[in-house]
Amino acid sequence: MIEPLTEPNAAARLAALLDSAMDAIITIDEAQRIVFYNRAAERIFGWTAAQAAGMALEQLLPERFRASHARHVAQFGATGVSSRPMAGSRVVYGRRANGEEFPVDASISQLDTPQGKLFTVIMRDVTERVEAESAQRRLAARLTGLLDSAMDGIITIDAAQRIVLFNRAAERIFGWEAAEVMGQPLEMLLPPRYRGSHAAHVRQFGATGVTSRRMGDGTVLSGLRRGGEEFPMDASISQLETPEGHLYTVILRDVTERVRAQHELAAMAAQASTVREEEKSRVARELHDELAQSLTALKMDAMWLKDNLRRDPGAAAGKLDAMLRMLDESVASTRRIAADLRPLVLDDLGLVAAVDWLVQGFMQRTSVACELEADEDMELGEPYATAVFRIVQESLANVAKHAHATQVKVALERTADAVILDVRDDGVGFDPAAPRHPGSLGLAGLRERASLALGRVDITSRPGGGTRVHARIPVPEGAA
Hints:
Elements: H1 7-20, E1 24-28, E2 34-37, H2 39-45, H3 49-52, H4 66-79, E3 83-85, E4 92-95, E5 101-113, E6 116-125, H5 127-149, E7 153-158, E8 163-166, H6 168-174, H7 178-181, H8 192-208, E9 212-214, E10 221-224, E11 230-242, E12 245-254, H9 256-308, H10 313-341, H11 344-348, H12 351-366, E13 369-373, H13 384-403, E14 407-414, E15 418-425, H14 442-452, E16 456-461, E17 467-474
Parallel strand pairs: 13-14
Antiparallel strand pairs: 1-2, 1-6, 3-5, 4-5, 5-6, 7-8, 7-12, 9-11, 10-11, 11-12, 14-15, 15-17, 16-17
Helix pairs in contact: 9-10, 9-14, 12-13, 13-14
């Protein structure tokens, strides 16, 4: 039978147990002076037990905490509670013998003894943990900064498809603040008609095990802004298994401008095709109505001459005069049609002479005063000269059809890297923001001409205030 420990042996065993503890254990009396100080405390604080004996506990604390700490210990002694953590959930700080501060987790207990009340503090140096947590916070802050600086919207949802991350780009795109959508279902950001199928698609994606993929079937998806406006977007989705559960991250981009540009390009292409077909129809009609009819009449007159030349020379002479006049008219018509397709003056004399020819023809047809301001020595090679010529041609055609103007001014300027065209009229003007008539192709034609030369056309107008067509066609260095 084992004999019970004698009192001296029990005290020695207890002291040995306390000295073997990994945490610092310090006991103080009611005057808050150290009466016990184990080896872990020696390692942590740097004072030996002999040095710490009788030392005020405040010597182990940074100066700024000493007064409040003494009060807290006294208040704790008055509560009668046997033990509790110190400083609640906050990390408290100790002070080593060399003056270095360090974070500790601590708890305090109290015990009434015949010699008076004793307080025991158990402390653990948590420097590494605090540094790791600080590093994690810094990393999280950097990641948050990176996410918030992204141009694309980034939204993370949990397995229940509720939003757990919503970056600033997503705030700009959807119009919701992050705090307003956190914990809300993702479907609030989708048009109602897509909500049921989208939730099923996300679940199916989660079951595939694929890390990431584009969303949709190659078509543009639709999102829903806070105000109820739908907008097109490109999106991809990825999934990640975390200790907190399955997470899905959607990266999306508002492609409203791209889709609008695609629609405008498609409309422009369709309109341009219509313009070309109309031009072909016009040329075919003129060839049929003028040249073909004239050639048919000439053929009939030639057959008449063959039959009547000897029998009636006088009538034959008159017929020949009429045929010559018809030939002159046919030659003039041929030249006019050819000039409309491609004016030879543009190739022979250059852009300024060709534009002057347009201006003169415009004034003859419309009786509207038109002034040309350009450097006669300006030279411009292809395809730039043709682009400018056609923009002037279509601008003047629009003025003739719609403007009811009394004066027009055409200005051409060559800079180091571009040619600038300005066509102004004092006509009735129009509202550029108003819907265009489906058959109105003039403005689209102007923009198409400029875009083919990598330039741009700006059209400004207001009802009653005339219209201005301003075009800038870039000319690469070294081009004529």
